[in-house]
Amino acid sequence: QVQLQESGPGLVKPWGTLSLTCAVSGDSISRTHFWTWVRQPPGKGLEWIGEVSYSGTVKYNPSLKSRVTISMEKSKNHFSLDLKSVTAADTAVYYCARMMIRFQGMPDWGQGTPVIVTS
Amino acid sequence: QTVVTQEPSVTVSPGGTVILTCASSSGVVTSSNSPNWFQQKPGQPPRALIYGATNRHSWTPVRFSGSLLGVRAALAVSGVQPEDEADYYCLLYCGGLWVFGGGTKLAVL
Are the beta carbons of A50 and A36 closer than 8 angstroms? Predict the structure, then answer.
Protein backbone atom coordinates (compact mmCIF):
# COMPACT_ATOMS: atom_id res chain seq x y z
CA GLN A 1 0.00 0.00 0.00
CA VAL A 2 1.64 3.22 -1.15
CA GLN A 3 1.47 6.26 1.09
CA LEU A 4 2.29 9.86 0.23
CA GLN A 5 2.90 12.65 2.72
CA GLU A 6 3.36 16.31 1.90
CA SER A 7 5.51 18.58 4.04
CA GLY A 8 6.72 22.15 3.94
CA PRO A 9 6.10 25.65 5.28
CA GLY A 10 2.48 26.61 5.73
CA LEU A 11 3.23 30.30 5.24
CA VAL A 12 5.17 31.90 2.38
CA LYS A 13 5.83 35.58 1.80
CA PRO A 14 4.71 37.27 -1.43
CA TRP A 15 7.31 37.02 -4.20
CA GLY A 16 9.04 34.27 -2.26
CA THR A 17 9.41 30.60 -3.23
CA LEU A 18 6.99 27.90 -2.12
CA SER A 19 8.85 24.63 -1.52
CA LEU A 20 7.10 21.35 -0.69
CA THR A 21 8.24 17.74 -0.46
CA CYS A 22 6.25 14.55 -0.90
CA ALA A 23 7.62 11.53 0.95
CA VAL A 24 6.65 8.23 -0.63
CA SER A 25 6.49 4.89 1.14
CA GLY A 26 5.44 1.53 -0.23
CA ASP A 27 6.80 2.18 -3.71
CA SER A 28 10.01 3.40 -5.31
CA ILE A 29 9.66 6.65 -7.21
CA SER A 30 12.45 5.61 -9.56
CA ARG A 31 10.86 2.27 -10.44
CA THR A 32 7.67 3.28 -12.22
CA HIS A 33 4.67 5.66 -12.37
CA PHE A 34 4.32 9.44 -12.54
CA TRP A 35 4.62 11.55 -9.43
CA THR A 36 2.23 14.46 -9.48
CA TRP A 37 1.39 17.74 -7.78
CA VAL A 38 -2.18 19.10 -7.67
CA ARG A 39 -3.47 22.16 -5.87
CA GLN A 40 -6.84 23.49 -4.75
CA PRO A 41 -7.40 27.15 -3.82
CA PRO A 42 -9.91 27.75 -1.02
CA GLY A 43 -13.43 27.06 -2.22
CA LYS A 44 -12.27 26.29 -5.76
CA GLY A 45 -11.52 23.32 -7.96
CA LEU A 46 -8.51 21.12 -8.54
CA GLU A 47 -5.58 22.24 -10.70
CA TRP A 48 -2.93 19.90 -12.12
CA ILE A 49 0.46 21.51 -11.51
CA GLY A 50 2.73 18.95 -13.10
CA GLU A 51 4.50 15.63 -12.79
CA VAL A 52 7.88 13.94 -12.75
CA SER A 53 8.15 10.46 -14.18
CA TYR A 54 10.09 7.58 -12.69
CA SER A 55 12.82 8.32 -15.26
CA GLY A 56 12.97 12.02 -14.35
CA THR A 57 10.96 13.47 -17.24
CA VAL A 58 8.94 16.49 -16.14
CA LYS A 59 5.76 18.05 -17.48
CA TYR A 60 4.15 21.27 -16.26
CA ASN A 61 0.86 23.10 -16.50
CA PRO A 62 1.51 25.81 -19.14
CA SER A 63 -0.04 28.46 -16.90
CA LEU A 64 2.60 27.77 -14.23
CA LYS A 65 5.51 26.58 -16.34
CA SER A 66 7.61 29.73 -15.97
CA ARG A 67 7.52 29.51 -12.16
CA VAL A 68 7.46 25.82 -11.29
CA THR A 69 10.08 23.11 -10.85
CA ILE A 70 9.32 19.52 -9.91
CA SER A 71 12.23 17.27 -9.04
CA MET A 72 12.90 13.90 -7.47
CA GLU A 73 15.40 12.79 -4.82
CA LYS A 74 15.77 9.08 -5.50
CA SER A 75 17.98 8.37 -2.48
CA LYS A 76 15.29 9.74 -0.16
CA ASN A 77 12.38 8.40 -2.21
CA HIS A 78 10.70 11.75 -2.31
CA PHE A 79 9.83 14.35 -4.90
CA SER A 80 9.54 18.09 -4.56
CA LEU A 81 7.71 21.16 -5.79
CA ASP A 82 9.23 24.62 -6.04
CA LEU A 83 7.00 27.52 -7.08
CA LYS A 84 8.69 30.88 -7.28
CA SER A 85 7.41 34.45 -7.24
CA VAL A 86 4.25 33.47 -5.39
CA THR A 87 1.26 35.73 -4.88
CA ALA A 88 -2.00 35.42 -2.98
CA ALA A 89 -3.38 33.50 -5.95
CA ASP A 90 -1.05 30.64 -5.05
CA THR A 91 -2.72 30.16 -1.66
CA ALA A 92 -4.11 26.64 -1.78
CA VAL A 93 -4.06 23.12 -0.42
CA TYR A 94 -1.27 21.30 -2.24
CA TYR A 95 -1.60 17.57 -2.85
CA CYS A 96 0.90 15.05 -4.12
CA ALA A 97 -0.39 11.98 -5.91
CA ARG A 98 0.67 8.94 -7.89
CA MET A 99 -0.48 8.66 -11.49
CA MET A 100 -0.20 5.05 -12.55
CA ILE A 101 1.54 4.05 -15.76
CA ARG A 102 -0.46 2.91 -18.76
CA PHE A 103 -3.23 5.35 -17.84
CA GLN A 104 -4.44 3.27 -14.92
CA GLY A 105 -5.58 6.26 -12.94
CA MET A 106 -4.52 8.35 -9.98
CA PRO A 107 -5.63 6.25 -7.02
CA ASP A 108 -3.14 7.40 -4.40
CA TRP A 109 -3.10 10.85 -2.82
CA GLY A 110 -1.50 12.55 0.14
CA GLN A 111 -3.72 14.25 2.70
CA GLY A 112 -2.73 17.67 1.36
CA THR A 113 -0.92 20.55 2.98
CA PRO A 114 -2.30 24.09 3.14
CA VAL A 115 -0.06 26.92 2.04
CA ILE A 116 -0.94 30.56 2.61
CA VAL A 117 0.87 33.38 0.87
CA THR A 118 0.96 36.29 3.28
CA SER A 119 3.29 39.05 4.36
CA GLN B 1 -4.56 25.18 -23.32
CA THR B 2 -7.58 22.94 -23.27
CA VAL B 3 -10.47 23.93 -21.02
CA VAL B 4 -12.49 21.10 -19.48
CA THR B 5 -16.08 21.93 -18.58
CA GLN B 6 -18.46 20.28 -16.13
CA GLU B 7 -21.90 21.20 -14.87
CA PRO B 8 -21.41 23.51 -11.84
CA SER B 9 -24.14 21.89 -9.80
CA VAL B 10 -26.67 19.08 -10.07
CA THR B 11 -29.42 17.97 -7.70
CA VAL B 12 -30.79 14.43 -7.46
CA SER B 13 -33.25 12.66 -5.18
CA PRO B 14 -32.14 9.70 -3.08
CA GLY B 15 -32.49 6.50 -5.07
CA GLY B 16 -32.47 8.35 -8.34
CA THR B 17 -30.02 8.31 -11.22
CA VAL B 18 -27.85 11.19 -12.34
CA ILE B 19 -25.36 11.70 -15.15
CA LEU B 20 -22.48 14.15 -14.83
CA THR B 21 -20.62 15.16 -17.95
CA CYS B 22 -17.16 16.37 -18.92
CA ALA B 23 -16.50 18.31 -22.13
CA SER B 24 -13.28 19.42 -23.79
CA SER B 25 -12.73 22.69 -25.64
CA SER B 26 -10.50 20.70 -27.99
CA GLY B 27 -13.42 18.71 -29.32
CA VAL B 28 -14.70 15.21 -28.85
CA VAL B 29 -13.60 13.42 -25.71
CA THR B 30 -12.31 9.97 -26.64
CA SER B 31 -10.60 7.07 -24.94
CA SER B 32 -7.30 8.74 -25.86
CA ASN B 33 -8.15 11.43 -23.30
CA SER B 34 -8.25 8.64 -20.68
CA PRO B 35 -11.01 10.28 -18.63
CA ASN B 36 -10.70 9.95 -14.88
CA TRP B 37 -13.36 10.78 -12.31
CA PHE B 38 -12.82 11.76 -8.68
CA GLN B 39 -15.12 12.33 -5.72
CA GLN B 40 -14.19 14.87 -3.07
CA LYS B 41 -15.89 15.55 0.24
CA PRO B 42 -15.16 18.59 2.42
CA GLY B 43 -11.81 18.50 4.14
CA GLN B 44 -10.70 15.35 2.33
CA PRO B 45 -8.39 14.65 -0.59
CA PRO B 46 -10.02 13.52 -3.84
CA ARG B 47 -10.90 9.85 -4.10
CA ALA B 48 -10.42 8.18 -7.48
CA LEU B 49 -13.55 6.52 -8.87
CA ILE B 50 -13.01 5.84 -12.58
CA TYR B 51 -10.03 5.67 -14.94
CA GLY B 52 -9.70 5.12 -18.65
CA ALA B 53 -13.28 6.35 -19.16
CA THR B 54 -14.99 3.18 -17.94
CA ASN B 55 -12.83 1.32 -15.42
CA ARG B 56 -13.73 1.27 -11.75
CA HIS B 57 -11.08 1.11 -9.06
CA SER B 58 -11.40 -1.84 -6.71
CA TRP B 59 -13.12 0.31 -4.08
CA THR B 60 -15.56 2.06 -6.40
CA PRO B 61 -19.18 1.09 -5.75
CA VAL B 62 -20.86 -0.48 -8.77
CA ARG B 63 -23.51 2.25 -8.78
CA PHE B 64 -20.82 4.52 -10.25
CA SER B 65 -20.16 3.94 -13.94
CA GLY B 66 -18.15 5.85 -16.52
CA SER B 67 -18.73 6.13 -20.24
CA LEU B 68 -18.18 8.19 -23.36
CA LEU B 69 -21.47 9.88 -24.17
CA GLY B 70 -21.58 11.67 -27.49
CA VAL B 71 -18.77 14.23 -27.46
CA ARG B 72 -18.27 14.05 -23.69
CA ALA B 73 -17.15 11.77 -20.92
CA ALA B 74 -19.86 10.89 -18.43
CA LEU B 75 -20.19 9.61 -14.89
CA ALA B 76 -23.50 7.97 -14.05
CA VAL B 77 -24.59 7.35 -10.51
CA SER B 78 -27.55 5.03 -10.10
CA GLY B 79 -29.46 4.42 -6.89
CA VAL B 80 -27.96 7.59 -5.44
CA GLN B 81 -27.21 7.44 -1.73
CA PRO B 82 -27.07 10.39 0.67
CA GLU B 83 -23.34 9.81 1.09
CA ASP B 84 -22.84 10.48 -2.62
CA GLU B 85 -23.32 14.18 -1.96
CA ALA B 86 -19.90 15.59 -2.86
CA ASP B 87 -17.91 17.42 -5.51
CA TYR B 88 -17.01 15.42 -8.60
CA TYR B 89 -14.08 16.21 -10.88
CA CYS B 90 -13.09 14.82 -14.23
CA LEU B 91 -9.50 14.73 -15.43
CA LEU B 92 -8.55 14.51 -19.11
CA TYR B 93 -5.26 13.80 -20.87
CA CYS B 94 -4.95 16.53 -23.50
CA GLY B 95 -1.91 17.13 -25.66
CA GLY B 96 0.38 15.23 -23.32
CA LEU B 97 -0.77 17.08 -20.21
CA TRP B 98 -3.54 16.55 -17.68
CA VAL B 99 -6.40 19.00 -17.21
CA PHE B 100 -9.06 18.96 -14.48
CA GLY B 101 -12.60 20.06 -15.08
CA GLY B 102 -14.06 22.75 -12.86
CA GLY B 103 -16.03 20.23 -10.84
CA THR B 104 -19.71 19.46 -10.26
CA LYS B 105 -21.33 19.88 -6.86
CA LEU B 106 -23.83 17.03 -6.48
CA ALA B 107 -26.62 17.67 -4.01
CA VAL B 108 -28.78 14.77 -2.81
CA LEU B 109 -32.14 16.17 -1.71
Answer: yes
